[in-house]
């Protein structure tokens, strides 16, 4: 849950300080708050979900449920939000993985570390057995692109991704090229691109 607001009264003592005890978020809290089903933002005209990519939505939803209200997040938020903020009436979800990663770089909550910079080739050996938030940059093709700009952000739990499930994570992490080849047989829309193709991987270890 969020830390309550603390007010410090002014006084006449030079260089006076006030100690504030802050509760750091835990990974177990984040993992438990990660949505178990698709969070749909319904278009009133088509009656369909506006967004096809939900990774940033899912992670920001987990943060929000843990009390991280993302008040300093200045990039694009969702619209037609099914659970808007009761105070601001705005959407509570980030919709782009890279924008959410930039927000996390500012270390916006207690317990948020400086991210570890990795690559698609070496991330597995560096995050195996750890827990936290992970971001993969520019590894999958959007539409008719020639150069990949597609990103992904997720929760990492020792060896699996929250958004993929245990079996899919195992295959995706341990057999990335085979998973990409087999999934691609059914068309580009179903292809699961190898995470090893990421130009950069950021990992925020949260215990």
Q: Helical segment tally? A: 6
Termini separation comes to 16 Å
User: What kind of oligomer do you see?
Assistant: single chain
- Overall CATH class: Alpha Beta
* DSSP E strands, number: 5
Reading the helices and strands in chain order gives HHHEHEEEHHE
Largest sheet: 5 strands, antiparallel
Mean pLDDT: 90
- Read across the widest sheet, the strand sequence of neighbours is 1-5-2-3-4
InterPro entries: Tae4
Protein name: Type VI secretion system (T6SS), amidase effector protein 4
Layout of strands and helices, then pairs:
Blueprint: H1 27-33, H2 55-65, H3 97-105, E1 116-118, H4 123-127, E2 131-140, E3 150-157, E4 160-161, H5 166-174, H6 176-184, E5 200-205
Antiparallel strand pairs: 1-5, 2-3, 2-5, 3-4
Helix pairs in contact: 1-2, 5-6
Structure description:
This is Type VI secretion system (T6SS), amidase effector protein 4. It holds the Pfam family Tae4. The protein is an alpha+beta fold. The two termini are 16 Å apart. A hairpin with a 2-residue loop joins strand 3 and strand 4. The chain has 6 helices and 5 strands. It has helices at 27-33, 55-65, 97-105, 123-127, 166-174, 176-184; strands at residues 116-118, 131-140, 150-157, 160-161, 200-205. The chain has a single domain, classed as Alpha-Beta Complex (endopeptidase fold (from Nostoc punctiforme)), CATH 3.90.1720. Helix content is 24%, strand content 14%. It has a 5-stranded antiparallel beta sheet with strand order 1-5-2-3-4, sandwiched between helices. Helix 1 (27-33) crosses helix 2 (55-65) and helix 5 (166-174) packs across helix 6.
């Amino acid at each position: 849950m969020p830390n309550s607001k603390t007010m410090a009264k002014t006084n006449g003592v030079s260089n006076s300080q006030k100690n504030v005890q802050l509760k750091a978020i835990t990974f177990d809290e984040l993992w438990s708050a990660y949505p178990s089903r698709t969070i749909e933002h319904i278009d009133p005209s088509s009656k369909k979900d506006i967004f096809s990519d939900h990774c940033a939505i899912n992670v920001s939803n987990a943060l929000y449920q843990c009390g991280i209200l993302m008040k300093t997040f200045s990039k694009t938020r969702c619209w037609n939000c099914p659970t808007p903020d009761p105070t601001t009436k705005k959407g509570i979800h980030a919709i782009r993985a890279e924008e959410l990663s930039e927000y996390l770089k500012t270390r916006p909550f207690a317990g948020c570390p400086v991210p570890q910079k990795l690559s698609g080739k070496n991330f597995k050996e560096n995050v195996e057995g750890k827990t936290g938030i992970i971001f993969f940059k520019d590894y999958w093709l959007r539409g008719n692109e020639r150069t990949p700009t597609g990103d992904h952000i997720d929760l990492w739990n020792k060896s699996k991704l929250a958004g993929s499930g245990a079996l899919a994570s195992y295959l995706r992490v341990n057999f990335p090229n085979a998973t990409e080849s087999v999934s691609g047989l059914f068309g580009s829309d179903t292809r699961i691109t190898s995470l090893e193709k990421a130009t950069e991987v950021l990992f925020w270890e949260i215990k």
